[in-house]
Design a protein that fits this description.
By secondary structure, the protein is of the alpha+beta class. The chain contains ten helices and 16 strands. Strand 5, helix 4 (about 115-125) and strand 6 (about 130-135) form a beta-alpha-beta unit.
Length: about 450
Amino acid sequence: MPVPVPQQRSVPTAETSYGADLTLLVIEDDPAGTFTVPELPAAAGARVRIRTARNLTEAGRLLTDDVDCILLDLALPSGAEARTARGEDPDGLATLKHVLRIAPGHAVLALTAQEDAELAAEAVRVGAQDYLFRDELDGRLLSRAIRYAVERKRADVAQHQLTESRLRAQENARLERGLLPTPLLEGSDLHFAARYRPGRSRALLGGDFYDTVRTPDGTVHVMIGDVCGHGPDEAALGVELRIAWRALTLAGLCGDELLSTLQQVLEHERESEEIFATLCTVDIAPDGRRAGLCLAGHPAPLIARQGRAAHLLPYQDGGPALGLLPRARWPRRQVELGGSWSLMMYTDGLIEGRIGDGTQRLGQDGMVAMINRQLAEGLTGEDLLEAAVTHVRELNGGELTDDVAVLLLNRDQDVARHRTHHGGRGRSIPRPRPGQVSPAGAQRPPL
């Protein structure tokens, strides 16, 4: 026969999935005192601690984080607290709905009479994990129901969290793809390729940023930068600086004037005064044979010409990184490019990877030697960028911890003359996805 169990008394139960004790909160109001919680069978030393509440107010006080399951009598009077909780009229499941609202993370068992089978099934559809008939309740059935309800609730919560995580990841991916730059090179005889690898796991954007646009006078402006750090805040700041750079460039600013304005943007948008950003800008003349170079604490670009070894552009006249000195200046240096050339711009993630297990870094000299070897092997365009990033990762012995961005601009003098002679026009290049490069055939540098 069922044995009455007083509030807070612990009784043995069958072993749970984790072999741990469980706490059951019983919410029922039986003025005649005929309802009892059946004695639960003992197994494996696991126990169920039982608490009882006669109304929802008392249940709210006893509903603590250590409660694993709630046994709710659907015959419990709903009372004003359940009827007015959301301005609804009372119904047969008003009490259950109220309990589900105040205990969204707890497993709930509905207790009802056998003649109310339809109401019991509706309780499960509303949100209860299972239902029990009062007349058939015994210790073994209740023990099984408690374990089942707790595990099902855990599974439901885990599935809900997984679904939320996937939706959030999809939204972030769409947002980050939308924030990637679309090179504006319509009308230019230059070709563009890019390789991007964020340092954050499963991220699409990091603190590195880049862009390229062609202004109405025919000048092609290229930029690559790096916000210190590689978290989501740095990625957001990098996007802001890139968009500001494009707007300022299209407005006609260049060189020191543009970088000074960008520094003001950085100072207003950064979270702390310790945040800074390095930047390299190149503005290529309409004839493609010369360019202006500005360095703000950033590694100098690498240039390769046909028949000559690749080497770094001059970097002695560079200025400090943005955000370090309030009244800094960034001189613009004129460089000769020649007729046919390939210009590679990169962030320090490409040169700061380790070589083997030691502390030695690849460095700029190591990068130049690596690129020259790959050029000698006949690698060009996207294949060259892919091989460079892959080899740096292999030298590091695994994934790079810093963001990596690499750009390749190419001009083929013969192709440029052919287009000019036939009135041809350049074409804009589709935006590369992170971890990928532009479509094959879009860029074919001569080197």
